[in-house]
Amino acid sequence: MAEHFTLVEAAKKIILDRRSIRDYTQEPVADEDLDLILEMGRQAPSGEDAQPWRFIIVKDPEARRKLGAIAGGGSGRRFTAEFVTQKMQERFANLKDEAKKKAAFEKLTSGSVSAFLAEAPVNVIVCGKKHVWDMPFDVSAAIENMLLMVAALGLGACWVIAPCIDIRDEERVKELFDMPEGYKAVSILSVGHPLRPHRPRPRLPIHELVFKEKFGQGYYNKPEEVKG
Ligand SMILES: Cc1cc2nc3c(=O)[nH]c(=O)nc-3n(C[C@H](O)[C@H](O)[C@H](O)COP(=O)(O)O)c2cc1C
Description:
By secondary structure, the chain is α+β, with helices and mostly antiparallel strands. 41% of the residues lie in helices and 13% in strands.
């Protein structure tokens, strides 16, 4: 039986249902679904309506393999830096199981993280016009719009910045996909059919995030005042 939602319920459901999905089936993404996702990107707000986003759709397996390899390297280096500077140890301080902790550190620093891009049926390279004032914010709004439509369609996606963090990696992405000077590869969106449902990641409690009149003054004095 079809479910019926008010607009508020539907908006809330889509926002809460969206998860970063990193494992996909081999089922292709329908062209009309991809069109809808891209159209939602196009409709995003941007400073001065500059619309500095451009999207490259990558389905070719060899091109995805190359992107996955660059992404894996980027994540591996980022997490290695976090390990060397002790940031990772701080982040995992509450994990008491030493074997699990070691496995997590090894996985994160190995370069295998973010390489899943290669396995997603579609990679969308999100490019941004460099000399537009608000480009990173504009492009981020477009990405979030697309992620929400992905969730509404029952598809899965992940926002992957890994191949674009290091300027040398980003240059390789630009070269591989003939991106002109004047554009930056901002992030990749992997899109496909989720292999399995995903549990929500934790969020900080709202009473720690919202202030009244001055930073630091609780807006929600007690957690139980929060209505959701
Ligand atoms: C700016 C940005 C960059 C991200 N880059 C990566 C990435 O390179 N690799 C990855 O696996 N996930 C990446 N993610 C996904 C986050 O890890 C994920 O959003 C976060 O853990 C919360 O999980 P959720 O999206 O399921 O709520 C990125 C998310 C954002 C917003």
